[in-house]
C-alpha cells in the first residue's frame, strides 16, 4: 500500500469515527465557565449542551448563587445528564487546574470546555483608563482563554479512561465582534477579545494532529447580564427596538442564539472547524458602514 493510500485510509477512519457521533454529545464531559448569570450566554449554553445528551456538564462561575438551581433544573429536565455546580475564578491557574483535574478524576476524560467568563468596565475615554483597569479586563477575558487552551487542551489528549478511544475535544472561547474590529466596545475590552481570537487561532496549530479543536465565537449585541444597563436605559426611553439596527438582520439577539452555535461547535458535526473566529452578530462584522440604497 502506498503512503497516499495509508493517509487516505487514516482520514477515512477518523472521519467515520467522528461522523458516528453526529450532533450527539453522548459520553462527553463538558465544562462551562461564566454560567451563573440568569440571562447569560453561559447558562443558555448549559441548556443547549444538555439537549445533546452529554454524560456531565460542570456549570461554573466566579459567583455561585444560581449554579445549584441550574444544576438541579438540568438534571430534572435531562435525567441522563449530570450537572455539577462549581464556583471558581476562570482566570486563575489554580481554579482551571482544579476543575480539569476533578473532571479527569471523576470521569477519566474531558471533551468540551466553553471558556465564556468575561467582563467589561463602563466605557471610559482612553485618557481616563488606567493600568489596573486594563490589566483586570485582559486578565478576566484573555488569561481565562489562555488557561483553558493550555490546561483543558492537554487533558483532552488523554485517552484510555472514560471510554475515550481517540485524543480530541473542542475548546470554544467567547471573544466578541469587539475583538474583530473597533466600534463595539472600549479599547481594553476590544484588545482583550482580540487576544482571545488570536489565542484560538494559534492554539489550533499547537494542537495540530491531536483532534483538539480551538475556536472563538464573536457575539454581537446580545441581551444578557452584561448589557442589561444598555437595554434597561433603552427600554426606559422606549427605544429598545433601535438596538441592533446597524446589522443587516436588524435586531439584537438572545443568549440561546449564541448557545446553539457553541453546542454545534462542541459536537462532532463541527469536526473540521478549527482555529476560526465565528461571528454570531446578525451580520454586523460582514460590512463596512453602508448607506442603504446608495451602493446596494
Ligand atoms: N452580551 C453581549 O452583547 C456580548 C457580546 C460579545 C461578547 N460577550 C461575551 O460573552 C461572555 C458572556 O457574557 P454575557 O454577555 O453572558 O454576560 P453576563 O454578565 O450575563 O455573564 C458573564 C458571567 O461571567 C462571570 N464571570 C465574570 N468574571 C469571571 C471570572 N473571573 N471567573 C468566572 N466567571 C466570571 C460572571 O459572574 C457572569 O455570570 C463574556 O465573555 C462577554 O464578554 C457578550
Could you describe the 3D structure shown?
The chain is of the alpha/beta class and 296 residues long. The protein has one domain: NAD(P)-binding Rossmann-like Domain (Rossmann fold, 3-Layer(aba) Sandwich). The protein has eight helices and seven strands, in the order H-E-H-E-H-E-H-E-H-E-H-E-H-H-E. Strands 3-2-1-4-5-6-7 form a seven-stranded parallel sheet, sandwiched between helices. Strand 5, helix 6 (187-206) and strand 6 form a beta-alpha-beta unit. Helix 5 (131-156) runs parallel beside helix 6. The protein is globular, with a radius of gyration of 20 Å. The model has no long low-confidence stretch (mean pLDDT 94). The protein binds nicotinamide-adenine-dinucleotide. Nicotinamide-adenine-dinucleotide is lined by residues 33-34, 36-37, 39-42, 61-63, 89-91, 116-119, 140, 174, 176, 219, 221-222, 224-227. The site of nicotinamide-adenine-dinucleotide has 28 residues, from helix 2.
Which small-molecule species are bound to the chains here?
A: nicotinamide-adenine-dinucleotide
Strand-residue proportion: 5-15%
Low-confidence segments, given as residue ranges, are none
Distance between the termini: 55 Å
Count of separate DSSP helical elements: 8
What is the gyration radius calculated from CA atoms? 20 Å
User: In which range does the helix fraction lie?
Assistant: 40-55%
How many structurally independent domains?
1
**What's the CATH class, please?**
Alpha Beta
Amino acid at each position: 500500500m502506498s503512503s497516499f493510500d495509508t493517509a487516505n485510509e487514516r482520514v477515512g477512519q477518523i472521519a467515520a469515527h467522528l461522523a458516528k457521533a453526529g450532533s450527539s454529545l453522548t459520553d462527553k464531559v463538558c465544562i462551562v465557565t461564566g454560567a451563573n448569570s440568569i440571562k447569560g450566554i453561559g447558562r443558555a449554553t448549559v441548556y443547549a449542551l444538555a439537549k445533546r445528551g452529554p454524560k456531565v456538564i460542570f456549570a461554573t462561575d466566579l459567583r455561585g448563587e444560581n449554579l445549584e438551581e441550574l444544576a438541579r433544573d438540568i438534571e430534572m429536565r435531562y435525567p441522563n445528564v449530570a450537572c455539577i455546580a462549581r464556583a471558581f475564578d476562570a482566570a486563575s491557574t489554580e481554579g482551571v487546574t482544579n476543575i480539569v483535574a476533578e473532571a479527569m478524576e471523576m470521569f477519566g476524560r474531558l471533551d468540551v470546555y466553553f471558556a465564556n467568563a468575561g467582563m467589561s468596565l463602563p466605557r471610559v475615554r482612553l485618557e481616563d483608563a488606567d493600568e489596573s483597569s486594563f490589566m483586570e479586563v485582559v486578565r478576566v477575558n484573555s488569561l481565562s482563554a489562555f488557561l483553558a487552551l493550555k490546561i483543558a487542551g492537554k487533558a483532552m489528549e488523554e485517552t484510555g479512561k472514560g471510554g475515550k478511544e481517540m485524543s480530541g475535544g473542542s475548546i470554544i472561547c467567547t471573544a466578541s465582534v469587539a475583538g474583530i474590529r473597533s466600534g463595539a466596545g472600549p479599547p481594553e475590552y476590544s484588545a482583550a477579545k482580540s487576544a482571545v481570537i488570536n489565542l484560538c487561532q494559534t492554539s489550533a496549530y499547537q494542537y495540530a494532529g491531536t483532534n483538539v479543536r480551538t475556536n472563538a465565537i464573536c457575539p454581537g449585541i446580545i441581551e444578557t447580564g452584561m448589557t442589561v444597563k444598555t437595554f434597561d436605559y433603552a427600554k426606559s426611553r422606549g427605544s429598545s427596538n433601535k438596538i441592533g439596527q446597524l446589522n443587516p438582520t436588524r435586531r439584537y439577539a438572545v443568549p440561546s442564539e449564541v448557545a446553539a452555535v457553541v453546542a454545534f461547535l462542541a459536537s462532532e458535526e463541527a469536526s473540521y472547524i478549527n482555529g476560526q473566529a465565528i461571528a454570531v452578530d446578525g451580520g454586523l462584522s460582514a460590512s463596512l458602514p453602508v448607506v442603504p440604497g446608495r451602493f446596494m
